[in-house]
Specification:
With 282 residues, the chain is of the alpha/beta class. The chain is built from eleven helices and six strands. It has one domain. The protein has a six-stranded mixed β-sheet with strand order 2-1-3-5-4-6. Helix 1 crosses helix 7 and helix 7 crosses helix 8.
Length: 282
């Protein structure tokens, strides 16, 4: 493979929170030491927040943050990520979402999230309304692969990071003005997260607010689309169905088609019935 070198003004940081995890960082990324981890309950957002002003001063074209488990989760190397960006210049945001089953089978990540985090879509709607957006129901948004992503798989330009950090920092401002909302967002254990029962909803809100924010503000987004050559082996038995459903979602949005939505909804329901363990792939 011949790689096209990316802009020297693009920086992608790979976060590790234990010293021994640094060995897993990809040399094409810049390893970022988060072993101090002052607010672990906020996960990667705390890193975005602490380094935000510094990134702005660096006058970068693009930047982003990925997990030390990026290769394990995506099956992509750092060089492949930089190559994708170089071959597709001019976008505001680049997404490398590995959760292709969730993207294809759900209208949006709020629909998926309500299964695991009770009423998280209602909390999202409350926040969106507090910021002055009108007539928005997050669960009614059809968010395709040009919007859907989960947290540590985003590379964006200055416009994206400035606006999204202002948007997400408002969670703290609004929480201080509304004790009930504060508990819903920051209350320990409110997320019911299977792997850490102490976590608040905050992190799971952030990863769902990103796609919604991209749609509301109409960012120009370039998603990485996995193929049989790049997808993780676990997805291969269902890849054809997932690719079809994902493409159907993009067509629903492109043509604003109720008929195509009905086709997608029928097809996804059929797959969920026939492949009971498919959601477990994520």
């Amino acid at each position: 493979m011949i790689l096209i070198s990316t802009s020297t003004n693009t920086r992608i940081f790979q976060i590790y929170f234990k010293k021994e995890l640094k060995d897993y960082c990809d040399p094409a990324f810049e390893s970022l030491d988060n072993t101090n981890n002052p607010r672990p309950e906020l996960r990667e957002w705390d890193v975005w927040d602490r380094f935000h002003e510094q990134r702005l001063q660096e006058n970068l074209d693009l930047w982003g943050y990925v997990s030390w488990k990026f290769r394990e989760k995506t099956n992509l190397s750092g060089d492949q990520v930089l190559d994708h960006i170089s071959q597709n210049p001019g976008y505001d945001v680049y997404l490398f979402n590995p959760c292709i089953v969730n993207e294809a089978l759900f209208a949006n990540s709020w629909e998926q999230g309500d299964i695991h985090h009770t009423n998280i879509s209602s909390i999202g709607n409350k926040f969106i309304a507090k910021l002055g957006y009108e007539n928005i129901d997050v669960k009614n948004m059809m968010l395709d692969r040009s919007r859907t992503v989960f947290a540590n798989y985003v590379v964006g330009n200055r416009r994206f990071w400035e606006q999204f950090m202002a948007f997400s920092r408002a969670l703290f401002t609004e929480a201080e003005n509304d004790p009930e909302f504060k508990d819903e967002v920051f209350g320990a254990g409110r997320s019911n997260y299977a792997h850490d029962k102490s976590l608040p909803n905050f992190t799971f809100l952030i990863e769902r607010l990103i796609p919604t924010f991209l749609e509301l503000e109409r960012f120009n987004v370039c998603p990485y689309v996995y193929t049989s050559a790049t997808v993780l082996p676990k997805y291969m038995p269902v890849l054809g169905d997932i690719q079809t459903l994902s493409t159907l979602k993009t067509l629903v949005n492109r043509y604003e088609s109720v008929e195509l939505y009905a086709v997608w909804n029928y097809y996804r329901s059929k797959i969920l019935q026939q492949s009971s363990g498919i959601l477990g792939l994520e």
